[in-house]
Amino acid sequence: MSLRESYGKHKKAYLAAACIIVIIGVWAYFRSRTDAPKYMTAAVRRGSITAVVQATGTINPLTTVPVGSYVSGTVKYIFADFNTRVKNGQVLAQLDPAIYEAQVIQARGNLQAAEANLSTLQANVQVAAANLTKAQANAKYELAAAKRSQDLFSSGVVSADSNDQVQSTLGQSQAEVKSSEAALEQAKAQLAQAKTQIMSMQGALDAAQTNLKYTTIVSPIDGTVVVRNIDVGQSVAATLQAPNVFSVAQDLTRMQVYAATDESDTGNIRTGIPVTFQVDAFPNDVFHGRVSNIRLNPTTVQNVVTYNTVIDFANPDEKLLPGETAYVTIPTGHAEDTVEIPNPALTFKPQMQPAALQALYKRYDIPREASTTHLGGWQTVWKLGPNDQIIPVAVQCGITDYNNTQLLQGDIKVGDVLVTAQQNTNGPSGTRAPFMGGGRGPR
Which of 61, 120, 145, 413 has the maximal Cβ count within 10 Å? Predict the structure, then answer.
């Protein structure tokens, strides 16, 4: 074999060996890269955070008064419709008054008859009183005559028969006095009864007149008709309760939103704080109001407890209508120029054995309330260190806007890189909340 042939043969062997070494190196490199975890990260920034409570509610007038009918009848006229502006005392509808007018006439006639009877009984009392006076005078005279007769009889001037006759006349006159007294009392009793009847008759007349008045249905307040439940010719039956025939909303230039807020949020809502809300009818407009109170009347639906937070707002153009759905944003706190922790970093937990995780907690002095219980607002975030090593850091958090959370305490500085999620060959893993802010890609 020539030297040249020998050199060519060895050159091929060296090239083959070099290729094998390169292939093995590449395979080892990619294998090591595949096995190493990859992290999604986000940088810590400084900014402002406003914590809010978001709720859905319904727009309502300040006051809505149902207008009922206290009497039954047939609707004869209607003078107001939906959206009609009405004044206090304005006629809304008229029921057929014929039967109630007849009741008034009858009640008035009964009262007049009773008053006429009263006049007669008053005259009877006067006559009975006069008869009693006459009987008393006669009895007085007969008493004097009987005394004289008795004296004369004792003196022997008159006979016993004459004296007995005088004494008998005295007894009759005294009996007549008692009879006259009884007649007077009876006349007075009849007069008192007649007066009671007149009062009853007057009450019946007043009731009939009131029922007649109620056939005219009027508005109790100034406002706008938002409900009309009757039509001409319809029968209204007010038997057990007054049927609602109209509803009048008072002053639609000032309205309220009843926002259903979760029980966990009510502790952060304060009376008087400004509120913004939007409605589907004007998706590009933002409306403003203020919290007036939280009603102490819970509503429970599928074990979810909510309270109505009442929000007052001005509606000068009457742009917003009763019943519209409002999407309310209630600010509950604000932090200016604070260190912001991206919310996904607060929920991230690396995939590793519990023993290794506890060893890291111990190595970096992570307290138990931060690593497990989250007591006192303490949590654990993971900071990306040199050589892509992750380091646990205990932090105490404040308010959140659901994208970022305020840092109160903890060894975190602006510019630090926090891990928000972990990726393996099978895709993302670990706990990761939706992240709305900026961040960096896998490392």
Answer: 61
Lookup result for tokens 């009895």: 139
Is the domain of 124 the same as that of 205? yes
What is the rounded CA–CA span in Å between residue 124 and residue 157? 45
Alpha-carbon distance 178 to 79, whole Å?
Answer: 68
**What b-and-e string marks burial along 397-430, b requiring 16 or more CB atoms within 10 Å of the CB?**
bbbbbeebbbbeebebeeebbbbbbbbeeeeeeb
Q: Clarify whether residues 135 and 192 are in a common domain.
A: yes
Percent pLDDT > 70 in the chain is: 87
CB-based contact 384:390 (threshold 8 Å): yes
pLDDT tens digits for range 309-346: 999 999 999 999 999 999 999 999 999 999 999 999 99
Cα separation, 328 vs 318, in Å, equals 19
Number of domains into which the chain is organized = 4
- The whole-angstrom separation of Cα 55 and Cα 329 is 7
Tell me: pLDDT of 26 over 60: no
